[in-house]
Amino acid sequence: MKYLEEIKSYWNKRAEGYSISNRESLESNDKEEYEKFLRKYIPKNKKCKTIDMGCGPGFLAILLADMGYESFAFDCTENMLAKAEENARDLGVKIHTIQGDAQNPDIEDKSFDLLVSRNVIWNLENPEKAYKEWIRILKPGGRIIILDGNHYCYLFDDKYMEERKSSTHINDHKNMMGVDTSPIDKIAYDLPLSNKIRPEWDKNILESLGVKIIDIDIDEISYKNEKNEEVKLIKSFKIIGEL
Q1: Nearest-CA neighbor of 120 among 100, 87, 84, 146?
Q2: What is the pTM of this model?
Q3: Which domain holds residue 134?
Q4: How many C-beta atoms lie closer than 10 Å to residue 235's C-beta?
Q5: Across the chain, what does the average pLDDT equal?
Q6: What total number of domains does the chain contain?
Q7: What are residue 87's phi and psi, to 5 degrees?
Q8: 29-48: average pLDDT
Q9: Per-residue CA distances from 33 to 25, 27, 77, 236, 240 (Å)
Q10: Measuring CA to CA, how many Å separate 109 from each of 34, 79, 105, 112, 136?
């Protein structure tokens, strides 16, 4: 992978600030909202074995552990995994951490009942391969829950750029701790999903891999264009599938 080490370096630097954001969410109403969402789609299996791919500081992995499931947290960066372990200890839950490349996970076939991932697929050089691998490690009847967004569409789409320049645009970067985003911004220009309006791409790929799409939930943003017309765009989405 051409950019793997650069991407890893960037997220290693982001670990401290991202962890603060995760802790804020875990100590807010976000926790209850995410739990409600997850319970709606988690396989009805009391022994459900789960994995959070690209776990970062452990938000989803910790939630799943707190909900009583066996929870694994997978990430390529040692600093993120260290923060995930620290956050889990502080919150009194147990997670199992694994370091590796999400596009080439060294995990046995049919190992998990549930795979979750938040804001990871956009960041990969070979997202289609990642999806193939993630499906490979799911058990028959297992489920996959992807949360992601059109983070860099503004590089290629005029409407997204207009929204970014509008007075109503909200900067989602928080607790940056002085980390410069320019390295990942430059890499994003070459990443294959930056020029795709999703989740249509994800739906097509997952279905081609034999996944039945259960639900898609879309969050929109809007802005006023030069003609004072309201324009709506897909900001983020949740897509849920089953083998």
Answers
A1: 146
A2: 0.97
A3: 4-242
A4: 18
A5: 96
A6: 1
A7: -65, -40
A8: 93
A9: 10, 12, 27, 16, 16
A10: 28, 27, 10, 9, 6
